[in-house]
Input
Amino acid sequence: MNQNPEPLLHVVLHSPEIPPNTGNIGRTCVAVGAKLWLVKPLGYLLEDKYLRRAGMDYWQFLNYEVVENWEELRQRIGEEKQYWYLTKFAKKLVWDATFEPGHVLVFGSEGQGLPPEIREGNPESCLKLPMREEVRSLNLASTANTVMYEAVRQIGGLPDVS
Output
């Protein structure tokens, strides 16, 4: 694990279920300097070959932590941070948010999304990507990658990268 003092972003997967999604999100976290947080329960073991295959040669560079529950995550990251909750139930689009270094991007599980108590308790911080009604949902890794790079764009790019 790469232990940078302050990551550009914090990316939270709440109860992720599909190993390749986590692997791909982890790879993007390495690419942008984000820290990946995994909130239990996980639908797989961290040694899962599909997780490792999706993360390929990058997993050893990933700054990540696994926490037991939502409360532990909030304690570890801190209550003072800006949390953004990605959910198809949001009224606000990702493009309408203002992202800054250190912000926390929270994604739910592939099957259930974010728990209602999390998203309903924070409606002003809920965001969604626009999509046509024919689509029920987007792939978790695709959504996370899109949101991370929108945040990087707004922040002004990656430090020390041309």
Observations:
- Residues 85 and 126 are 5 Å apart (CA to CA).
